[in-house]
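Notes continue from the previous slide.

Worked example: a multi-chain complex. Inputs as given:
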Amino acid sequence: MKLYDKLFDAEQFTLTNGKTVSQKFTRTPLIILFLLIGIAVSVWVTGFSLTMLVTNIAGFWHIFGSMFPPKLSYFLQVWRPLLMTIQMSFFGSFFGSLLALPFAVLAASNITNNRGINLVVRFILTVVRTIPTLVSALIATYIFGLGTFAGTVAIFLFSFSFVGKQLFEYIETVDMGAYEALTATGANAPRAFVTTVFPQILPTYLSTALFAFEGNVRYAAILGYVGAGGIGMILNEKIGWREFQSVGMILLSIFVAVVIIETVSQQLRKHLS
Amino acid sequence: MNKKLEAVLSKEPSRRVQYSITGAILLILLVASSPALGGANMTSKGFEIGWNILTGIFTPDTSLLFGLGDSGVAYLILQTIAIAFLGTLVGAVIAVPLSFISATNIVPRPVVLVTRFIIMAIRTVPSLVYGLMFIRVTGPGPFAGVMTLAIVSIGMISKLFIETIEDLDTGILESLDAFGSTLFQKIRYGILPQLGSDFISILVYRFDMNLREATILGLVGAGGIGAPMIFALSAYHWHQVGAILIGLFLLVFIVEILSDKLRQKILHG
């Protein structure tokens, strides 16, 4: 940036009161240049081609069109895996959020006054969070065998790291006055935490957990792709067999379930805040 | 003094009924969800595989990790970034007009309901399904990944864009009108400065999310770092798995930090 400012002179203005002010040369050309380079490299690496897209897009619409009308009678086979997906999400989110609480306390520097513990716990949360859920589900199927349990483990790990991070960042912003007052009167740290800090973080904690649950239901739908149970299994199967009307029905069921769960959970979250 | 304290304490409403009802509901839901634990089939083999993956992470295949060829981790990371970058841009190009016709302060209510329903429906379809659909269009490879991410991003980008557009301060437009500005001047000086930084910040955020998404697209053959990982896993090449997992972690971690910094700079100068 300094070099850039040296190359292009700043513009000088003389104000009416005799002072001179300078405005740096605009950065827009530089940003556009970087953007263009990025686009060029990406197009080259990915083999993006607009002409291919335009000529072959009919295939996309063809698949899309053949999903309509969804095969409604297929719902008899859909509801069970769909329910399983929701159960996996609930179970994983619940225990993930539960485990997140002690870890968040350990990661928050205002409650746990030990830099080493803070950093280690934060590092654990970061590592778990960066591994995509589908990847952890895939690894879980190798360890626990194919089935819903692997999916539950993946959802558990994601909820744990997501809620843990959100919560510890929130704990660090709470009002510590009451906590300090209580420890000054001789309360031990856990006792003081439960009576003063916990009520402050509870609404955010619950609302983050609900948010994780919402997202998990949506996400659990694809876990079946790696054999980790739920509705993704039949989705994958039906796409493979090109039974697109059944695929349409599955997607419709997911859509309805997600809308219902999101509406309920958003109402609850509104109530919490 | 103590009596006063006790009087205040006793005034606190008893939430016991509320708490027990909430607890009971949670318990019932948990019991109802317990089938989620089914299918656990942990054998000594599973444990062994878990251990192998762990040792693989600590003794990664260095020729893969530092390799610069087409199959090296560096190239895979570049490809994943490229997919996420182009995907976000194409998604934004589609999302901008879509969000303008879904903002309540620009178009009438019935139109908004229809377009929002469409956006919601686009959002529900899982990314892997789009991936499988686009593979029929473009053939397997990173191009399919770009299109998949573009469509997947539309939902979130337009949702956030709509919020920004609905927050537009129309007073500025009115005062520009009062000066006698032309339509182009109104857009250039009245609308772009208000939307620009928010839009860019949303796109950077979505790029961060798309990057995570791009790492799994390889499962359906849509390019990125995911595909070689599947191959390595199913071939039990634990050192390669370790190398790819390390690459994945570094990629997601560094991009997250950078995008956070960039968004701070864009929004708060």
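Summary box: Residues 21 and 27 of chain B are 10 Å apart (CA to CA). Chain B touches chain A through 65 residues (CB under 8 Å).
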